[in-house]
């Protein structure tokens, strides 16, 4: 997602059928990609079956990330979100996931005050 997040229909905390929710999202917003956040392997399988445009695997362990990559087998891009920090980037990338979302890059930015005035 270079340049910031693009518009998308994002499914989070799906209560019920992921298929029904994705179908509804596509009906309401046919031009937008549908991104589904999953918290377990059952939800991952459901998101793959409905051909989500991207799947967010939230708070998975490294072993579970590797398993998710094997299950998806490249059918849907996987993005890791939740609890990421720069110390874990390499280990997470080595699991084979397609994308990483690190909220700390924007949430924990410190402002600085400087002037561009020139002295004559």
Task: List the topology elements.
Blueprint: E1 9-11, H1 18-28, E2 34-38, H2 41-49, E3 54-58, H3 62-72, E4 78-81, H4 89-93, E5 99-100, H5 104-107
Parallel strand pairs: 1-2, 2-3, 3-4, 4-5
Describe the overall structure.
The structure is a single chain. The protein is α/β, with parallel strands linked by helices and 120 residues long. Helix content is 33%, strand content 16%. The protein is built from five helices and five strands, in the order βαβαβαβαβα. The chain has helices at 18-28, 41-49, 62-72, 89-93, 104-107, and strands at 9-11, 34-38, 54-58, 78-81, 99-100. A five-stranded parallel sheet has the order 1-2-3-4-5. Strand 1 (9-11), helix 1 and strand 2 (34-38) form a beta-alpha-beta unit. The radius of gyration is 18 Å and the shape is extended.
Structural descriptors:
120 residues, 5-stranded parallel sheet, 5 helices, alpha/beta, 16% strand
Query: How much strand?
Result: 15-25%
Low-confidence stretches: none
Largest sheet: 5 strands, parallel
Secondary-structure element order, N to C: EHEHEHEHEH
Q: Total number of helical segments?
A: 5
Shape: extended
Q: Number of DSSP strands?
A: 5
Mean pLDDT: 84
> Percentage of helical residues?
25-40%
Cα distance spanning the termini: 44 Å
Radius of gyration: 18 Å
The neighbouring-strand order within the major sheet is 1-2-3-4-5
Structural class computed from helices and strand pairing: alpha/beta
């Amino acid at each position: 997602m270079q340049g910031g997040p693009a518009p998308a229909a994002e499914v989070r905390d799906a209560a019920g059928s992921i298929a029904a929710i994705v179908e509804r999202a596509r009906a309401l917003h046919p031009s937008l990609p549908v991104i589904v956040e999953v918290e377990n392997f059952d939800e991952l399988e459901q998101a793959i079956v409905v051909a989500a445009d991207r799947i967010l695997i939230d708070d998975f362990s490294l072993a579970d990330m590797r398993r998710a990559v094997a299950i998806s087998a490249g059918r849907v891009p996987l993005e890791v979100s939740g609890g990421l920090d720069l110390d874990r980037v390499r280990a997470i990338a080595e699991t084979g996931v397609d994308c990483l979302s690190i909220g700390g890059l924007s949430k924990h930015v410190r402002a600085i005050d400087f002037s561009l005035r020139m002295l004559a």
